[in-house]
């Protein structure tokens, strides 16, 4: 039986500590420069989107029944060296929340969420010529029990692994891809990779041709030349038809669709899905 006087390994924050400190904790000095009419320049006082992303994180934590993020930014964390594990997640707080929570349980303080490009910097790598190291001066770290903390790091923490929101359609896609480019540590993706994986035709061709995995029977009509696809895919399950002028090739389309639906590959299926690619 544990003594009630024994200090807990996880300090329970007070209600005052749990209260979000506001944009000033996320973007110091965000209200220092005011326009002549008194309005804050930039995107509603949130030029890099950190405040909006932070609010998204708090909403996601609340929906999961977890405590809000504790603001510890006034007392910088020190003592992190190049051998300490730092897994950096760039961009959207909601897409990687399950990973952050599980990582916080298995390896407390190792998972660090970066919500803004102003929280990190790229410096020339000391170990790999032509590569860059990613240093975190601020971030949201995750701990046991779903607890999280907004922290500053002095000196900045060096990322050992980096992943994030690389999708082109995501608002964070631009700065995330730029920060993760040519790093000296492993990365969990890239903008070019996300671009390819968003195309279902390319994805199915890669799985069938390179990984030799079965894919759903696929009939694709492609306009003009597609440099990201071979002239003749020749892979099981994927039929590629190139159209030079779709307006004058209606009979070809009908013929290909009829042959596809009547083929043996479609016998196990009762429904057909349609979609477009780039």
Automatic annotation (TrEMBL):
<feature type="region of interest" description="Disordered">
    <location>
        <begin position="1"/>
        <end position="51"/>
    </location>
</feature>
<dbReference type="GO" id="GO:0016887">
    <property type="term" value="F:ATP hydrolysis activity"/>
</dbReference>
<dbReference type="InterPro" id="IPR031046">
    <property type="entry name" value="CARNS1"/>
</dbReference>
<dbReference type="GO" id="GO:0047730">
    <property type="term" value="F:carnosine synthase activity"/>
</dbReference>
<protein>
    <submittedName>
        <fullName>CRNS1 synthase</fullName>
    </submittedName>
</protein>
<dbReference type="GO" id="GO:0102102">
    <property type="term" value="F:homocarnosine synthase activity"/>
</dbReference>
<dbReference type="GO" id="GO:0035499">
    <property type="term" value="P:carnosine biosynthetic process"/>
</dbReference>
